[in-house]
Amino acid sequence: MISVEFTNLSSIGPDALQKLPNLQELHLSSNQLRSLPGSLFRDLPALRVLDLTNNLLEDLPPEIMDSHSPLQHLVLNGNRLGALEPAWFQTLRELEWLDVSNNRLQALPPNCFQNLSSLKSLDLSHNHLDRLAPELLAGLPSLERLNLEGNQLHSIVEHTFDLVPHLQYLFLQQNNLSSLPAQLFGKLGQLAFLDLSNNTLTSLAPCFSEQNLTLELDLSGNPWACDCAMLAFMQWAAGRSVGLYSLQHTLCGTPENLKGRTVAAAAKDALVTSCSADRRAPEPRQPPSGPRFPSGAWLAQVAAPSFKWAACQLDVVRAAGTPSFNSPPATSPQAPMAS
């Protein structure tokens, strides 16, 4: 391993890394690098970790690694990248971790990640993305964690996530999302945690796969419409033993008489009283034995259902076996994607 960090390094010669055939980790973070020679990393046949965090990079040389690169972790967090070029990644077939958070990305080419068949974690958080191409995630069959926190997304095209069926952790908090397509999460049979906090959502009617037996959600910081549809969703969540985080910050935005109340409290009394009693649904299923959810996340105390959430009928093929990557984040579901 070579570590040259916090040294104010502003340039590096094309031959600086010659004759290092056994180098596996290279850390050049927290320097002043504005550019990199095109051949800098070409003769590092054993390099698996490249950390360029917190430099001044606005661009990278095309095909930054050679065609036989075993690189597994590439960290570009905290630079000045305004765009990503597909050529940067086309030879990185063993890459498992890509972090391009805290840059200046405004749009991504549809085929940007098409050759990253081994990628498990993709961090695009804290950029300026306002939309995602529907085919952006094509070519990422192994993706398990996707972080889009802190962008400017105002909508997401239906079926965008159908291309990553093994996704387990999805971070969409702190965007400008006001609504979501009904089928957006329907094919994510291994989804374990979804963060939708701090958007402008007023209702939530998307379908979740029947395979999501331990789903956890953070819906806080949105101006929810506390109506019969929301009651139905809360009752659905209780029946499925869905874990809800930050209930004390999951508040009603409308109607006026419920504004500021927690959605959970409204679902226990006011909404049960006001919603039509002639549209009754079956009692919710009992929670599975031995679930592990955060203390206070249960909604089992929600009143007996008088409405049924309009759950979609999904044709989902059940995957054999268990997910290959099912450990939770180190501290909490909102922990950073990269350490």
UniProtKB/TrEMBL annotation:
UniProt cross-references to SUPFAM superfamilies, sorted A to Z: L domain-like
Domain of life of the source: Eukaryota
Name the record gives this protein: Phospholipase A2 inhibitor subunit B
Region (Disordered): 277-296
Domain LRRCT, chain residue ranges per copy: 222-276
Name of a matching Pfam family: LRR_8
Matching PANTHER family: COMMON DPR-INTERACTING PROTEIN-RELATED, LEUCINE RICH REPEAT FAMILY PROTEIN
Listed SMART domains: LRR_BAC, LRR_TYP, LRRCT
Organism annotation: Chelonia mydas (Green sea-turtle)
Transmembrane stretches, start-end: none
Keywords, comma-separated and alphabetical: Leucine-rich repeat, Repeat, Signal
